[in-house]
Specification:
The radius of gyration is 21 Å and the shape is globular. Helices cover about 75% and strands about 0% of the residues. With about 450 residues, it is mostly helical. α6 runs parallel beside α9 and α16 packs antiparallel against α17.
Length: about 450
């Protein structure tokens, strides 16, 4: 085990035989990478797939339901969406700390139970307070199970890297692929069920998590070898003094705010261009299909050419360019198929940026985290970025309700990820793939 305070990557890179074995690894397809994983990692990857099937069956249609069926103002829709994200991302630090303290299994099972209750409540909620309560439950559920699963995937990926079985970024990229496969399937299920009503969509999402709960109660181990439970305090104080980690959190928050516009800004533009939200499911499918087919090749390409900071920089620039494409086209007010081309370009660029940013950020966290507190740091990454999304979503909703030129919200969102590049930390050892130690 590395000595306290030593980044895991730096320790691994000092082991020359390991480094040579990793550099000789042949590229793998998604299926080959998946079958090479341990049973626990395969379960956790499939967990991410199931989580997103249930989640994305509901979420893409929430903004339209709030605005049309319930009649909320634009700023209130933005606030509700921001609260959902904040109750999820913002409280990840709680779920991560609980996973460090009690282990993965009880936190995951509790999160699934809370998600079932939240989806069921949302299906019947009509008053504003009831909608807010339901989305807070939905978000808090993910704040429980997601950091527990993500931190364990990261820990297992580092152990796998240490054993010479491949770079950690390949496992984390496959985890992203599984999530996007769920994001691909979920909206189609939701779109089909939306022909009945939104309540049916919510109950179907709850049913998915009933199955997930039952499966994990049966398959998830009571104790995971090598995972030590932390009983002492002081972790938050040390985290708050970790400037490099906080800088990474802020840059990741800019990415997450941009990604959240798939649920806030994109539906508005699709409705304007097409006269309905029917194309929305296809745009989500396009994004998911890109990740499923291209994530691992992009990760291998980045690992060969870019360190973690440069990978995130390139991703943030692509995301900024996506918003700029719509901003440039918006004054023409195109409609129909032509009007959907700019938003399709936005989705493609945003997705390519995500493929570079998300695995790099997750791979960076173990190097910056305090030993034994990977759950806390994984949760804090999302909590700090979730606060940024809460503030940014409300501000975006306000921009949509004003009489400013229609390109302004897109220009404002284009500036945020580009500016966030300056926040990225500059540590000396941050290669996306294993590299010779200088």
């Amino acid at each position: 085990m590395p000595e306290p305070g030593t980044p895991l990557r730096r320790t691994l890179l000092r082991r020359t035989p390991l480094r040579q074995r990793l550099l000789r690894q042949r590229p793998r397809t998604s299926l080959r990478t998946f079958t090479s994983l341990s049973p626990l990692l395969r379960l956790l990857v499939l967990t991410q797939l199931a989580f997103n099937v249930g989640f994305f069956a509901v979420l893409p249609f929430l903004a339209e339901h709030l605005g049309t069926a319930i009649g909320m103002a634009g700023w209130l829709v933005g606030l509700v969406l921001g609260l959902r994200t904040f109750s999820q991302q913002g409280l990840f630090v709680v779920g991560g700390a609980l996973a460090d303290r009690y282990g993965v299994r009880p936190v995951v099972l509790a999160g699934c139970a809370v998600r079932i209750a939240g989806f069921g409540w949302l299906g019947y909620a009509e008053a504003t307070w009831a909608v807010i309560g339901a989305v807070l439950l939905i978000g808090f559920a993910a704040a429980l199970f997601s950091p527990a699963v993500e931190s364990e995937v990261a820990r297992q990926a580092v152990c796998r890297e240490e054993a010479g079985e491949g770079p950690r970024t390949h496992v984390l990229a496959l985890f992203t692929v599984a999530g996007q496969a769920g994001a691909f399937i979920g909206p189609f299920i939701g779109a089909l069920l939306l022909a009945v009503d939104f309540r049916t969509v919510c109950l179907a999402g709850a049913a998915v998590f009933v199955l997930v709960l039952a499966g994990h109660a049966w398959l998830l181990p009571q104790r995971i070898p090598g995972r030590a439970r932390i009983r002492t305090g002081g972790g938050l104080r040390r985290l708050a003094r970790n400037r490099r980690f906080l800088a990474l959190c802020c840059a990741y928050g800019a990415y997450l705010l941009a990604y959240n516009q798939l649920y806030q800004l994109l539906p508005v533009e699709v409705e304007r261009a097409a006269g309905s939200q029917a194309p929305l499911a296809w745009l989500f499918a396009l994004s998911a299909l890109l990740v499923v087919t291209a994530q691992l090749p992009v990760t291998r390409w980045a690992g060969d050419r870019l360190d973690l900071r440069r990978s995130m920089t390139a991703g943030l620039l692509l995301i900024s360019a996506g918003f700029a494409v719509v901003a440039a086209a918006r004054p023409a007010a195109w409609t129909g198929t032509v009007g959907l081309l700019p938003v399709a370009g936005y989705v493609v660029l945003l997705t390519l940026g995500q493929m570079l940013v998300a695995p790099a950020a997750r791979a960076w966290v173990p190097d910056l985290a305090e030993n034994g507190r990977l759950g806390l740091y994984t949760g804090a990454l999302s909590s700090i970025s979730g606060l940024m999304v809460l503030l940014g979503s409300a501000a975006t909703g306000t921009l949509l309700d004003t009489d400013l030129p229609p390109a302004v919200p897109w220009l404002a969102l284009a500036a945020i990820p580009a500016t966030a590049i300056a926040l990225l930390p500059r540590p000396p050892d941050t290669k996306a793939g294993p590299q010779p130690h200088p």
